[in-house]
Design a protein that fits this description.
By secondary structure, this protein is an alpha+beta fold. It is built from eleven helices and 35 strands. β13 and β14 form a beta hairpin. The N terminus is likely disordered.
Length: 657
């Protein structure tokens, strides 16, 4: 670790010590369990429009997030915004040179996607004029649209420092969409609203042009998550027309931005291929021309300059790859950043409105994220802070991109992380959650690093159904829970044995959410392959998904379950671990939170009961107040200790504290 990084990091931590206390960390034997269990200290950094302040997301030991504002000239913390209970600040955006707007959300667990509360909170850079300016906790007398609404920023109107455009959707108490999406002009100081537009469809994501006019929308059918339509109009006075209707299992088209002349749309689309790339769409001619597309993987990020010009995209076939086009100042700078941080993931998080300053996040498999500030005037790149400053990258283990071959010949991309020493190693197979949409990436992961530091090889495979590899690869997993998707994990495990990475007699399978399902199904379907199984917030009864949890609250959620699980209850039961408990002969550890909304703890309790009846009582770790994955640091430490102890007893080589 360089001297400048240590100095800057010490300064930032000192400034925050009165605001956010965290205990010192001591390694436990050879594995720093506490260090891996800690939440990242910083998770996002954005510069103010005038380049004078930084806003940063900061987490305490219980995962409670605050937003702090730091004045750059003297590194002084000028404001801190935090909230009680499960409410926590989410996305934050500078709406003018002095005012920061924060979307509030509610988390129920580590694997949960945050739910918007509907409240928009604003604060000045000096900490003054704090107010909830929109949402259920704002002054409801201002407008009935505050009630049961969720909202997010649609357009920061740089030519009007008082107002922004927001999109607001109203929901009833059962969280069903009520009415059309609306666009309002919102005063960022007093919360006053003025209605500007209404969506063409009941649930649509709207997009404005560079004149702040709502002219494009992506609509989702109320009772089918997969059916979508793209709407367009030439001006607010014109009627909406449908540009394209499609099923996202076969194609996609999502508006990204208008060109600067407001005549064409830049869109993410599969075009005539299978993977999502970037295209230029002429709405009048209804023709598209490709800007960038990778034949193997979907694009991961669209890169824009300070004026909204698109300068490139990022792809991740194994490690990050970039396609930078154009030759303006920002494009040239981006090429320079990629050269300076060759081989790493480089993501601009924000830019000052004049384009002088850029905040970069640089990360890799052994770096959770370092933030840098680039000054385009002086051409200097200065280190700011690190996401996890207590970790030494030299102690972390690299992720190696791999490609296994399934038994039917399909290529399965993924990663293997090896401990120090010479293999074959005891191995933990770690299927990802989701499963449709998410995938494993080349990035820092505390679970992976904990296990590798404890002496285990870690296999992460992107089985069919995973996102990121085109529509066909993802949709080929629909209806294949416990079947082809599971077989892919099995095939990849055998591949790791054949390659000499894994000791065939010492393999365990562990995962969270869908990964928990795959882990217990692996134990049931491959009793001779795995020596133990760990399920963390896992799905164990596919029919229970229709009865409990938040997915089945809406018709759209039920249609999603029908698509990915199948419609035959008896057939779903046959692919549920709870009904295959008599086949699970290996030791099992079940970890679950009592407040899990996505996968209620009833899943774990039902499997525990079934395993006991089959003569194989599992070990359990339940925490009543945790959700879909444990948030509190003390509980995360407990999870890691129990996991390492469980692995040590069943496949050896890991040490626990």
């Amino acid at each position: 670790m360089s001297i400048h990084r240590l100095i800057h990091n010490s300064l930032i931590r000192f400034l925050l010590c009165l605001l956010l206390w965290t205990p010192s960390i001591q390694a436990t034997q050879d594995v720093d369990i506490q260090g891996f269990a800690r939440h990242s200290e910083f998770d996002e950094v954005k510069i103010s429009p005038d380049g004078q302040y930084l806003a940063a997301g900061v987490n305490d030991k219980n995962g409670q997030r605050s937003i702090v504002i730091i004045r750059l000239k003297d590194k002084k913390v000028t404001a801190r915004s935090s909230f009680s209970g499960k409410v926590r600040p989410g996305e934050f955006t500078w709406v003018n040179k002095e005012r920061l707007l924060i979307e509030l959300n509610r988390n129920y667990g580590l694997f949960d996607r945050p739910l918007l509360t509907g409240d928009l909170y604003a604060v000045n850079a000096d900490g003054s004029h704090r107010a909830t300016i929109f949402g259920p906790n704002a002054n409801a007398a201002k407008s009935p649209d505050y009630n049961y609404s969720v909202a997010w920023i649609l357009d920061v109107m740089r030519d009007d420092p008082r107002r922004i455009l927001i999109q607001a959707n109203r929901y009833d108490r059962a969280r069903h969409l009520s009415g059309l999406s609306r666009v309002y002009s919102l005063d960022v100081y007093n919360g006053r609203l003025k209605k500007k537009a209404v969506s063409p469809y009941g649930d649509a994501d709207l997009m404005v042009d560079h004149n702040h006019q709502v002219r494009a929308a992506l609509g989702v059918k109320r009772d089918d998550l997969f059916q979508r339509s793209v709407y367009y109009r030439d001006s607010p006075a014109d009627k909406w027309k449908i540009l394209k209707q499609f099923d996202i299992g076969n194609a996609s088209l999502s508006p990204v931005a208008f060109t600067l002349d407001n005549r064409k749309l830049v869109v993410e689309s599969t075009g005539e291929g299978d993977t999502r790339g970037l295209f230029l769409l002429d709405p009048e001619q209804e023709k598209m021309e490709p800007l960038s597309q990778n034949a193997e993987v979907d694009l991961s990020q669209v890169l824009q300059d300070h004026e909204g010009n698109i300068i490139g995209v990022r792809y991740e076939p194994d490690r990050p790859e970039y396609d930078i086009f154009g030759n303006n100042r920002a494009a040239k700078q981006m090429r320079g950043f990629l050269k300076a941080f060759e081989g790493q993931r480089v993501s601009p998080t924000s830019r000052s409105w004049d384009g002088r300053f850029t905040v970069l996040r640089v990360s890799s498999d052994t770096n959770a994220g370092d933030y840098y500030l680039y000054d385009g005037k002086t051409r200097k790149l200065n280190y700011l802070l690190s996401s996890r400053p207590w970790e030494n990258p030299d102690q972390l283990r690299p992720m190696k991109p791999i490609e296994a071959t399934a038994s039917d010949g399909v290529k399965l991309p993924g990663y293997i992380t090896l401990p120090k020493g010479k293999g074959p190693f005891p191995m933990v197979v770690m299927p990802h959650g989701g499963p449709h949409g998410p995938r494993d990436y080349w990035l820092y992961d505390p679970d992976t690093q904990l296990l590798a530091n404890a002496g285990y090889a870690v296999l992460q495979i992107n089985f069919r159904g995973s996102g990121g590899y085109g529509n066909q690869f993802e949709s080929s997993g629909y209806g294949e829970w416990g079947r082809r998707m599971q077989k892919d994990i099995t095939d990849a495990t055998r591949w790791a044995i054949e390659k000499g990475y894994a000791d065939a007699d010492r393999i365990c399978i562990y995962g969270g959410s869908y990964g928990g399902y795959a882990s217990l199904m692996g134990a049931a379907t491959e009793p001779d392959l795995y020596r133990c199984a760990i399920g963390y917030a896992g799905v164990y009864d596919l029919n229970m998904m229709y009865e409990k949890g938040d997915i089945q609250w809406t018709r759209r959620g039920k249609s999603y379950l029908d698509r990915v699980l199948g419609t035959d209850p008896e057939e779903r039961a046959a692919r549920s671990p709870v009904h295959l408990a008599d086949r699970i002969k290996v030791p099992v550890l079940l970890i679950h939170g009592g407040k899990d909304l996505r996968v209620p703890i009833a899943h774990a309790k039902a499997l525990e009961k079934a395993l006991k009846a089959a003569g194989n009582p599992p070990e359990t770790l339940y925490r009543k107040k945790e959700g879909h994955g444990f948030f509190k640091e003390e509980h995360r430490i407990e999870v890691y200790r129990r996991m390492l102890d469980f692995l040590q007893r069943n496949i050896g080589n890991g040490e626990t504290g």
